[in-house]
């Protein structure tokens, strides 16, 4: 019985507490895919089931970053942002990320995968979810 209790406690402690998460979007005004996301997703995002689990916070990389972002980079709680848009599930550190934006439908598929990730113990390495490429397309970054 003690072993079972220990295993249950371990699993509970290793699962990300969903109510503590944010979805950070690293965006640039020079990024056409960011602008597509802002136009196609943002106006309705707060009404979706995803907003309840991952409230969206947009970080404009064209401006100096807030101190907490600088601290996160220096403590390796956040990996470098190489492309925009980059979406990061955040709980005082990076949990999981995806890069790029293709369409609203594909974005919500990725959000389903993000939310599914929170139902299992956290992974030790930096996971990345790839957005599927549309036929005849080279993706959108």
UniProtKB/TrEMBL annotation:
InterPro entries: Thioredoxin-like_fold, Thioredoxin-like_sf. Residues 23-110 form the Thioredoxin-like fold domain. This is Thioredoxin-like fold domain-containing protein. The lineage of its organism: unclassified sequences, metagenomes, ecological metagenomes.
